[in-house]
Structures are given as structure tokens and as C-alpha cells.
Amino acid sequence: MKNKIKIKGVLKSYLHISIYLGVLLCAVDLAVWFLDIEAALMLTAFAVFYFAIILLFSHNNKPIIMNELISFATEYGQIQRQLLRELEVPYVLLDDSGRIFWTNKAFENVVHKGKGYRKAISTLIPELSRDKLPGDLDETEVEVSYEGSEFLAKCRKVSLKEMAENSDIISPEGYNGYLIAVYLFDETALKIALRENDAQSLVVGLLYLDNYEEALESVEEVRRSLLTALIDRKINKYIASLDGISKKIEKDKYLIILRKRSLMQLQASKFDILEEVKTVNIGNEMAVTISIGIGLDGLTYLQNYEFARTAIDLALGRGGDQAVVKTTEQITYYGGKSQQIEKNTRVKARVKAHALREIITSKDRVIIMGHRIPDVDSFGAAVGIYRIARELDRKAHIVLNDVTTSVQPLRDLFLTEDYEEDMLVTSEHAKNLAGAGTVLVVVDVNKPSITECPELLKICKSIVVLDHHRQGVETIENATLSYVEAYASSTCEMVTEILQYISDGIKVKSGEADCLYAGIVIDTNNFMTKTGVRTFEAAAYLRRAGADVTRVRKLFRDDVMEYKAKADAVSQAEIYRNSYAISTCTSEDVQSPTVVGAQAANELLNIKGIKASFILTEYQGLIYVSARSIDEVNVQVIMERLGGGGHLNVAGCQMEGMTIFEAIKAIKNTLDKMLEEGELD
């Protein structure tokens, strides 16, 4: 068998060199025959002897050489196998289904299994599931944890096609079999070092006192310095306990420097400093609240500071009394359970009014739009901005696509000869009108995805945002002027205040005053929710301008089908966990079911013991959720977890790709989780 083995390559040339020399000797012998016969005879005899010796040695030594070659090859393979067995890097061979085929000692020591273990690798290391192993790709890398150690698993596909081509028992045609070689590199020490280094990285924060002026005014003048000192001491002592630095940069603003490890402690305690500062009391009627913006994980210290500025703006825009942590990838909210205190001063409204006047007068045209499926506050505010634009002698248009039953009575007020035909336009018409000389005013919404026409935000370069909803992660960027006040009862209240500062003696028509007044009435639920001093002042101004309370009330009487739908939603409400009312509102035979759902949610709050209500309405392929509360539950944070937002006691969201029953289950699961986490205490 060994004699039949054919040798090739360099070894074949080396073994046959004596034959090649013999052939050369014969050629020399032939040449000598022509020179000297006696010498030729002697050389011929030598050549015969030479060939005899070569053939003898070749015949006798070839089997020995083959034996030695086979032995060396076998021993070489055994050495390789032994080296792999003794390799310090854990190494395992898997078949194409992920089942263990062969292991080395290092791998066996890691997983505490013998070399006969032949189950799937995922039974030992769940992270190495079948979808994480090489399939279409030749190599993959997976980070795995096992018994407190962290490994980087490098998986490489080893093709068996070449083996099949050289095999006598496996047909290579259509055969794509392979093994998977997995190396485990221990990165535990490296990961610990990286985490330790990350924990020491710089975190920048800004801390603002939300109601500094109001709190000082609520205490005697001689004790104001004491209140300020106690607040300073509370903040400085708390930050110092976290091995951080706090520096007062203004009378009501602090710069905070922390390690990331200290921030983790703050997050674990859910920023209990928000509650601790409220305990400072020396007779002040109003508790001091703070807002915190934290920036981290930026590429530079400057970027962390910019993150902190964005975070504090979000915290203030959402009503204050909360902390916002911003990183490169996400934004996290803490607190925000209390109602923001209304500001008594109108200085900000006057400043914004003058800025709005400058922007509008610098353009030729004004386009006004609210949110999709507009409500009375959205339309009323748009009408107020329309009056401002006309007073400044600028062409103005309100974008209105779908007219709901609540908006229709107000819309009909403007279908007269007193108003231009293109006062109300569709989205397509508005896009044709928009240009370089156009300012876009967005009212009652600061989330671009739910505006009446999101494309206008890209077309118009000059954008103004007026809104009273708390800001979320998604906001309108690059706005020329942004006036977002979460404490305002409605956008109509904000626009009414601006109206008074735009120009002296501005004339508001009675129909326009009705629209603005109606927006305030609806959003305050007849002056019962979020109503402050400035709300009544705005209402009084509108009454003087010609708003009629009786006329407004008659505009919003329900038709019989809407009233029945609302009554049905209330009667079928499920009381979950003895505190949360959940029900559904039908959209059949109801022109604006989302409005009816919101009204039903308000009605459910009149039931004793109800902390919050949720009404779900299936409409236009989506499920609309209206969430309401009085003062015990922050429905905004609940809706944010479901992709929505709003106010502390008025919020909502839209759900897509699920049934009503699945949506109800999602709300219940969210309530359960937040109750377990203590977020709804």
C-alpha cells in the first residue's frame, strides 16, 4: 500500500536526483566511446555498477522513507491537536447547527464540562444563540458573560467543501457543509478598567430655581436673605456629599460638576434633591422647586455643557420641578410630578410680542398651522395670530385640513364676506404659498410629527412656535422664536396676552374674540383646570373685545349621537386598581370621536376615588388615548412611556398597529410597572 503512494514536488525531485545523474553519466560514457574505447569500457562498467546500486537502494529504502513520512505526518497532526487541546485561549468547534463538536481544556475549565459534552453551545452560553453564529457571514463577534466573567466570542466559519472534493465517500456536488470555530477572549479586566474610567468621567449640570422670585415674595423681607442662604446650603451640601462641585453663577442658577459615578447615585435615588429642596421652609407660603439639566457622554467637555443646556431647557419647558439627563443617544426624565406655578409678570409675554412683531413685519406672508385633528384651542390661537398679521398689514393663511365637529362652528364664523376666501387653506395650497418671504407660525403644538403639515417646517426658513404643552424629546428645531409656557392654561391665553402688546388699540372682532375665549374655556374645562390669575385677565380682555359667553356655550352643545357616545364610554368604564378608569369610545355615527373621548375622560374624573382616566378611541386606523387627572397623578409621564405627551393632568398618545384590547393591556402594564417603580406614588 505504501509502495503505491505517489510522491510529488520537491521531495520527488530530491529522491530522483541520483537517476538524473546516472542519465548524465550515460551521456558522458557515450561521448568517451568516440575518444578512447578502453576508457569507455571502464566508464560503462562503472555506470552499470552505479545503476545497480541506485536501483537496489531505491527498492529497499522507499518503503522506509514512506513509513517515516507517514509517521511524521501523523505525529505532526497529533502535535497540532495537542497544541489546540493545551491552548490557553478557550476554543470550541461547533457543527453548522451550533452543537458542540470538540473542545479544548481551557474551554472545559471555563464552562466546567468534560470533553464529551455534545449539546448546543447556547445551553451553556445563551448569548451564542443560533442567529448570532456565522451563517451568511464568515465571521461574527459576540460579547458574552459567563459566571461573572466577560468574554468576546469570535466565531469563524470553517468550510468543509475542500474535504468533500478530496473524499471518496462524500460527493462534493451541492455540498456546503461547515464547522464553526469559536474563540473566547477574556475581557473581564479590560471591561472593569473601562467602566472604572467611564465612572470617573466628567458630568456637567445646570441647576435652576424655578420660582425664586415668587418664593421670596411669599416671605417677610427681613427673612429673605435667610431663605436664600438655606437654599444655597442645602444644594451645596447635597452636591458635596456626592463628591461634586456646585458654583452659583446667578442668583437662581448653579453650575454643577460631578463624576459619572455620582450621577449614578443621583439616578438611583431618582434625584431626591428635588424633594429635599422643597423642605426648606422658614414661613414661606410657596415651596421652592428646582430644575436640573445634566449632560454626559459627549466627545468634549464643551459638548457635555451643551447637552446640559439642552436638558435644562427641556426641564423648564416641561414645567420645571424635574431633572433631565441628556446623552448622545437618549434623554431621561426624573420627577415632574407637581404643577408649575404661574408667573405673575407679563414681561416675557411683552418681549415675545415685540419679537413676533419684528419677525412678521420683515416678511410678506404669514402661514399659521396647529396640530393634526385640530381642537378649539389650536384653531382659536390660529385666529388670534391671523388678527395680528392683518393688523400688521400682512397676508395671512390658516392651514386647516380636517374640520372636526368642535371646530366647525368656529370655522363657519369666517365663511363670510368680511374675510378673504384664502384665509383657510389646505396643506397642499399652503405648500404652494410658502417661500422665502413667508413666516410659519405653529400654535398649540411643539412636536413636528403631529403638526397639520410637517412639510412646511422644511420649506419655511422662519418659524415661530407658540405652545403651552410640556416639551418632549421631539421638538421643532431651529425656530426663530419659541414661546413655550407649560404653566399657561391654553395657547389662546398666550396669544391673547401677545395681542395686547402687538400694537396700541388693536381691534379684535367679536367672532375672533369668541374663538380665543372658547379655546380658554375648553382647555380649562370651564375654568376648573389650570386656571390662574392671568387666565381670568385674558378672559376679561376678550369679554371687553366682544366675546359672548352665551354664544360660545351654544356653539359647543353636543348633538344627540355624541352625547350618547360619551355617556356610553362613561357607563362602560373599568376601574383598574381601584383608582384608574379605563374605557373606550365608539367612532360610529360620531364625526369627531377623539373630541368626545376627551370629554368622556373629563367626566370620569367626577367619580370619587378616581385618580386618572383613560379613554381609547379607534379612528382613522389609529388608537387615540385621552388621559386626564386632577392633581394626584401625572398623566404626562404615563403617556410619554406610550409615545405621547401633554400636561401633568391633560395628556394623550396615538397607538398604531394594535387592537383596542392590546392598547388597554399596554396601558395596564404601564400603570403596573410605574406603580412598582414608585413613579405614581
Give a short account of the largest sheet. Answer: 6 strands, mixed
3D shape: elongated
Structural class assignment: alpha/beta
| Spans where pLDDT lies below 50 across 5 or more residues | none
| Sheet with the most strands: spatial strand order | 7-8-6-9-10-11
Radius of gyration: 41 Å
Would you give an account of this structure?
- This protein is of the alpha/beta class and 681 residues long.
- 43% of the residues lie in helices and 20% in strands.
- The protein contains 24 helices and 23 strands.
- The strands form 4 sheets. Strands 7-8-6-9-10-11 form a 6-stranded mixed sheet. The chain has a 6-stranded parallel sheet with strand order 14-13-12-15-16-17. A 6-stranded mixed sheet has the order 18-19-20-21-23-22, with helices on both faces.
- A hairpin with a 2-residue loop joins strand 20 (612-619) and strand 21 (622-629).
- The N and C termini lie far apart (86 Å).
Features:
alpha/beta, 681 residues, 6-stranded mixed sheet, 6-stranded parallel sheet, 24 helices
